[in-house]
Amino acid sequence: MDLSMPVSPSFAIASRSRQASLVWGSRRVTVGGGAPVRVQSMTNTDTVDVIGTAIQVKELAMAGSEMVRLTVNTHEAAKAVPLIRDQLDRMGIDVPLIGDFHYNGHRLLTEIPECAQALSKYRINPGNVGKGDKHDRQFAVMIEAAIRWDKAIRIGVNWGSLDQELMANLMDQNSRRIHPWDVKSVMYEALISSAISSATQAVELGMNPDQIILSCKVSGVQDLVSVYRELSKRCDYALHLGLTEAGMGTKGAVASATALAILLQDGIGDTIRVSLTPQPGESRTQEVVIASEILQALELRSFVPSVTACPGCGRTTSTTFQELTQQIEMFLRTQMPQWRTKYPGVEHLKVAVMGCIVNGPGESKQADIGISLPGTGEAPAAPVFIDGEKCMTLRGDSIAQEFQVIVENYVEKRFGIPLGNRV
């Protein structure tokens, strides 16, 4: 065993893509080119419902979504977009909006220029812009609108709506090979070829290549990894990652986290979306929370203070530490919209809530602030550690409330802007 060299730490490779910009007013969100991996989401309200959609966009933005996509499928929806933008501006929400177009986007962008102006990016699916000669003409109309209004575009290919003419041509070519590929490999090639050829066509029409983002959405983890690894080799456009139709609940969350983590670790991907089917009554913001947690787990970004907590075992039959962990996590996440500006850097805070004496003190010392609760049969005392040092011991029925106050005071002391430096 060679102990002469240290174990190398693992880290995600940096993406080497072009940089696109989504702009609204003074807000500029960069994608790719060394920018942080961005989180985005999509509304599931009827876009025609101006107030309901604006409220959901606000909720998504407050949860951490840095751009929000809207369905723009009818003239009524297109006419609602500038009204939604106005409502958001009135609420002080400057998150850029993305228009999701299929089939009739060329008409909507042309006939309702206010919609084209209010959006910051257009999502174009090359499989749904027309067939035959109409495809090129209608695609060109959408690119011309992006050029005219200086907007970014995402050429988003989806294997559920592939260009059937392209797929047929590739299948014909494959049949003439001495050793034909399997059907899945042909489909991979169709996805990648559709995205890159559409981007090439857009550039030939005058589109700034820096303002082009590509995606090739599939619903299988290994399929997504295969497609994006090859796509990243063939182009340097910024890439949007996400499983399409990922599913509901733990299935959708686990599949998305698995696929995105593999690619992001390899330096592939510049903006992500976790496409969850919401469970009944579940907030749409859950997909934003999961996307943020994926990036934070990979140490690519920090969004909220992290809470380390043990899973519990036979030594911790009480639910006290579970309840305290839940309260602290909810408290920190609820405070973050205000804390981001009030306490710069607070997202890097590390908190530990441990359930017994075995690992409790050690984990608590490693955190910025931690508490080790008494396990079953242990003395009813909870030592609190701040910056690695034991500073006090809490006892009684109000440990949770007292610890929350300690956390608040620590945040104010460590991250608060001195009065003399406040603007």
UniProtKB/TrEMBL annotation:
Keyword annotations of the record: 4Fe-4S, Iron, Iron-sulfur, Isoprene biosynthesis, Metal-binding, Oxidoreductase
- Protein name, please? 4-hydroxy-3-methylbut-2-en-1-yl diphosphate synthase (flavodoxin)
Q: Name one Pfam family in it.
A: GcpE
InterPro entries, A to Z: Dihydropteroate_synth-like_sf, IspG_bac, IspG_bac-typ, IspG_C, IspG_TIM, NO2/SO3_Rdtase_4Fe4S_sf
**Taking every annotated instance into account, which residue ranges of this chain make up the domain IspG C-terminal?**
307-408
Can you state which reaction this protein catalyses? (2E)-4-hydroxy-3-methylbut-2-enyl diphosphate + oxidized [flavodoxin] + H2O + 2 H(+) = 2-C-methyl-D-erythritol 2,4-cyclic diphosphate + reduced [flavodoxin]
Q: Per the record's keyword annotation, is Aminoacyl-tRNA synthetase included, yes or no?
A: no
Q: Which organism does this record belong to? A: Rhodoferax lithotrophicus
